Amino acid sequence: MKRAAALASVLLLGASTACGADRNDAGGPGTPHGTPPPGGVEVNATVREWRITADVQSVPAGPVKFSTANLGTIEHEFVIIRTDYPDGKIPLDGATFSEDAPGVSSPGEISEFKPGTVGETVIDLEPGHYQLVCNIEQHYHNGMHIPFVVQPA
Ligand SMILES: [Cu+2]
């Protein structure tokens, strides 16, 4: 949402074959990800029906680059939610939850992106409890959420 969303980009999967287990491809041509923000960290995540994964469950506060692959068959989004609600327990308002309800806020997201693509965004995160979710109708209810913690730097 807001300013962070403007930084989000979507890349085609397969255009990033240089990004393998070896993260040592920073800056090379044709390597759209694998480059953490200065002083920050990168989180590699996936979305699909009806599951979200991330390669780390916590990061230090500061700039965090999310690179999220859509491995499903339909569009998904990837929303960073700050909340103290337990994982999966944010109260729904119909088929989604309000991202600015009491006790819920979103410092950023990758808005809906297509199957077979990778979305990216860099977000400056403060210490706290978070969830990484898809808030398309019914997707949170169907299981697209995981807990995420930002530690004091
Ligand atoms: Cu979804």
Question: Can you give a write-up of this model?
Answer:
- By secondary structure, the chain is mainly β.
- The protein has a single domain, classed as Immunoglobulin-like, CATH 2.60.40.
- The chain has one helix at about 1-5, and strands spanning about 10, 40-50, 50-55, 60, 60-70, 75-85, 105-115, 115-125, 130-135, 145-150.
- The chain has a five-stranded mixed beta sheet with strand order 1-8-5-2-3. The chain has a five-stranded mixed beta sheet with strand order 4-10-9-6-7.
- A hairpin with a 2-residue loop joins strand 2 and strand 3 (about 50-55).
- It is globular and about 40 Å long.
- The chain starts with a helix and ends with a strand.
- The relative contact order is 0.26.
- The model is unreliable at about 1-5 and about 15-30 (pLDDT under 50).
- Copper (II) ion binds near residues 76, 134, 139 and 144.
